[in-house]
What we know:
The structure holds two protein chains of two kinds.
Chain A: E1 8-11, E2 13-16, H1 23-26, H2 46-49, E3 71-74, H3 86-94, E4 98-101, H4 106-115, E5 118-121, H5 124-136, E6 142-145, E7 150-153, E8 158-161, H6 166-174, H7 178-183, H8 186-193
Parallel strand pairs in A: 2-3, 3-4, 4-5
Antiparallel strand pairs in A: 1-6, 6-7, 7-8
Chain B: H1 7-13, E1 16-19, E2 25-28, E3 31-34, H2 40-48, E4 59-62, H3 79-95, E5 98-100, H4 110-116, E6 125-128, E7 142-145, H5 148-157, E8 159-162, E9 166-173, H6 182-193, E10 201-206, H7 208-211, H8 215-223, E11 232-234, H9 239-245, H10 254-264, E12 277-282, E13 289-291, E14 299-301, H11 316-326, E15 341-344, H12 346-349, H13 352-362, E16 372-375, H14 380-388, H15 391-397, E17 423-426, E18 441-444, H16 447-456, H17 462-469
The structure holds iron/sulfur cluster.
Amino acid sequence: MAYDKFEILNSTAVPLPIENVDTDQIIPARFLKATERKGFGDNLFRDWRYNGDNTPKSDFVLNNPTYSGKILVGGKNFGSGSSREHAAWAVYDYGFRCVISSFFADIFKGNCLNIGVLPVQVSPEFAAKVFAAIEADPNTEISVNLPEQTVTIVKTGEKESFDINGYKKQNMLNGFDDIDYLNNIKSEISEFAKELPL
Amino acid sequence: MSTKKTLFDKVWDSHVVKHVEDGPDVLFIDRHLVHEVTSPVAFLGIKNRKSGVLFPNKTFATADHNTPTINQHLPVADPLSANQLKALEENAKEHGISHWGLGHEKNGIVHVVGPEYGITQPGATIVCGDSHTSTHGAFGAIAFGIGTSEVEMVLSTQCIMQPKPKKMRINVEGELNFGVTPKDVALYIISQLTTSGATGYFVEYAGDVFENMTMEGRMTVCNLSIEMGARGGMIAPDEKTFEYVKGREFTPTGAAWDKAMAYWKTLKTDEGAEFDKELTFSASDIEPMITYGTNPGMGMGISKSIPNAEDLEGGVATYKKSLGYMAFNEGEDMIGKPIDFVFIGSCTNGRIEDFRAFTSIVKGRKKADNVTAWLVPGSHKVESAIKEEGLLDILTEAGFELREPGCSACLAMNDDKVPAGKLAVSTSNRNFEGRQGPGSRTLLASPLVAAAAAVTGKVTDPRELMKELA
Ligand code: SF4
């Protein structure tokens, strides 16, 4: 599925300064029973967000009207555990287009890039500054510039560059995905397959 | 650059269709395993793009995540689960993919049945929309979990696009102590590396301990590679591997076998090949392990007490949140904690050898009254072996019941949910908050530790009971 192009995103951000947030928290297994990609945002962080009786937990950040925006700022090792792409879908479907963290788990990061959520890995120091800026002012704007590969805390002008490989960057800028690329080289793949030992 | 290659290089490089400039490799996939949860949207994708399945004979489907573990002959009660199972069946049929659904004699957990039927082979690239695909690395395959978009890619083109991971070798030298199992080795390594310590790497396990391990044990170790963040883990194939693979349904025979063997025998790391990182541990430092927190890196020797936040790397707030969830305190002992549930099963420890270990402790004892025990074989094949080897009689005598195969309480998508607040000793792989049911609390451990807990009703050092046995 193609997704919206990503260039520059200026937005307030939602802070979640917890380490090792695993994909079971992002979307618990019991919500993986759909056969279509629909409605996962409602269950994003389900068990941190709602009590057993479905009433919202007032102390969880997504239930706090002070914080909003299209950027989620997570603690170190964000997205660990299960490979479920549903976690990335839930993040996207809720309305986030970018996740900032000082460290991402591999599969989650790859899944995000495949569906149009930009994972921005920053230094632990810069991540701490972002958390501090949001804490000082929940309306603080963060600017994520994909063409330049920079993330800026607008108010203070503090800025850091981030890495993304050139191929993935072009995909994000154009809203393309790997499936388009692979479908175009199918004959090359079939040729290659003939030579394999197994 | 050196021409010496690691095992990982050899398998990876031979599967690269092409390298995308400033981007990933296009990696050809030999074997694709599919289950009901992460595939429906991928099948929808190929339908929408009208792309079809390029090599249906390289994909194998089984139902496991959602399936009930009792009364499998009856219709599945949960309509959402039933719907997913039906979708898998229909998708497989439409595209000519072999499908081992509920009730099929070959049905079982995807990572248990792959090796059992010879789908898993040395030198292969194997993927599945499931992070514990790393299990198959035990055979010297490159095996790892993928997301649903990638499942679609493999269906339609038999390839995915992946940057080549960095390489790490983990050596464990010496001989394992009494009562220490492959699960303990893995939990020990994860506790040393943390849950993110191997992120970005593909791991090769080497050294005496892995060489001496059975294939089942190697699968347990490779299975848990993902829990330290690694993309996957692998072990060079040897005589034990070839012996295991030989004669299984999808294993090559005749001339094809000879050809495969000639290739498989080349699959080892060249002397002097370089790794980006190399770690060595001593087997004698490992004792039976147990976790106390909410990720698999929060584990320790069973006789130790829960560490203080100050003594650990990482966020103190996160650590305290984790212990808070578990309702444990810093400095507490794990031994003696009363438990409510025992779960033996999953793709980590749901194979015959795990049930043998569990039974060895249970034999001649009784299940503790305060414990609810779920014994869930990884496949019908494992289930049959439990019966044929006489383990079931021993288990029944001790007050245990055997359920039918599936993922079960490993992720609690079916009815096997540990109730909120209850404490479970589980042989599975994840102790995340709510993993075994909303509010459930999980202690990960080996089948021996699980058995000791099941008969005593509390966390118990299995070596105590094994001494009595000896
Ligand atoms: S047993 Fe658990 S970890 Fe293994 S495939 Fe099933 S759900 Fe995943």
